[in-house]
Specification:
With about 325 residues, this protein is of the alpha+beta class. It is about 25% helix and about 30% strand. It is built from 9 helices and 15 strands. The protein has a 7-stranded antiparallel sheet with strand order 1-9-10-11-13-12-14. Strands 2-3-4-7 form a 4-stranded antiparallel sheet. Helix 4 runs antiparallel to helix 9 and helix 6 runs antiparallel to helix 7. It is globular. The structure holds 7N-methyl-8-hydroguanosine-5'-diphosphate (M7G). 7N-methyl-8-hydroguanosine-5'-diphosphate binds next to loops.
Length: about 325
Amino acid sequence: MAESENGGAAKRLKTDAKNDCGDAGEPISDSLVSDFKISRVLRDCAREKNIFIHGKVKDQDAVVILEKTPIRQDTLSELLKSSQLKLEMKNDVYSTYQLQAPAHLNEIKTTVVCPATEKHVKKYLHQEVFLVEESGEDYRNLTLPYISSQSFSVQWVHNILEKKAEADRIVFEDPNPDTGFVLLPDFKWDQKQLQDLYLIAIVHRRDVKSLRDLTSEHLPLLTNIRSKGEDAIQRQYSVPPSKLRVYLHYQPSYYHLHVHFTSVEYDAPGCRVERAHLLSDVIQNLQADSSHYHNRSLAFPLRADDGLLLKFKEAGKV
Ligand code: M7G
């Protein structure tokens, strides 16, 4: 089956700062942020330079995420030339300043979830975390019934697959209904620098919720994602496979199979061992035993207020 690449725009990083558009190509309303009434800070991190805020836009619940982005090497000389320096202190050979950069070099990446559900608010709230060990049986008895009734909508995923949203962001697509996928930038990545490169491959199949559903039947799908995803990233961004961390989350937030591709040097949220499963390990595990992910115990973190943790507690598993 034919494969397509988006516009042949090889090795291009997004540099346009102006006129950011919504999915339908319409400018995102400024009022979405200026009308935002803050209720509380859900989480913030000085090291990651981000803050997650819960509030209301008009009468709707919303979550706004503000994040300072990495300093870009390609704009360094402009940054140093066109900024103003304000001296803070000087002592011997040491001095510190506040550098006031021009607006277009001083953006804050902003993500808005609106209307936000209670589950969105909980996802971003800082919480005590517990590690749970789930057997295959626990998955079928506790987790599956829970996620079938409680998980996040995957409407945004269907919009991508049906080209109703983010169609212009697609980096690569293999349209095969069994082994095909769409590769596009994760919305955590603003595509302005490669240090925090982050793409996701979303499979066309709609019958695979997570790692737990995978058997050797899915090996052609998984090996296809690995090889064509890596090739596409090499072509588009000149980043070789040896610089990529390619993995699946268990538990994911969204139960439609997808694979994360991040820069190996970027400490992406959710890339730790208790949640990330390297795609190459998954492939080898399935080659060795088709029912590996049906039977094996898998450990994963759950937040204190996660309803699934309550189910595990009620069953005496935590
Ligand atoms: P996950 O493992 O299900 O959950 O990954 P996580 O969000 O807890 O990591 C889903 C991935 O899809 C994450 O990396 C999200 O940042 C990304 N993502 C979520 N949404 C709602 C969107 C979206 O609308 N567009 C894009 N491009 N990525 C998204």
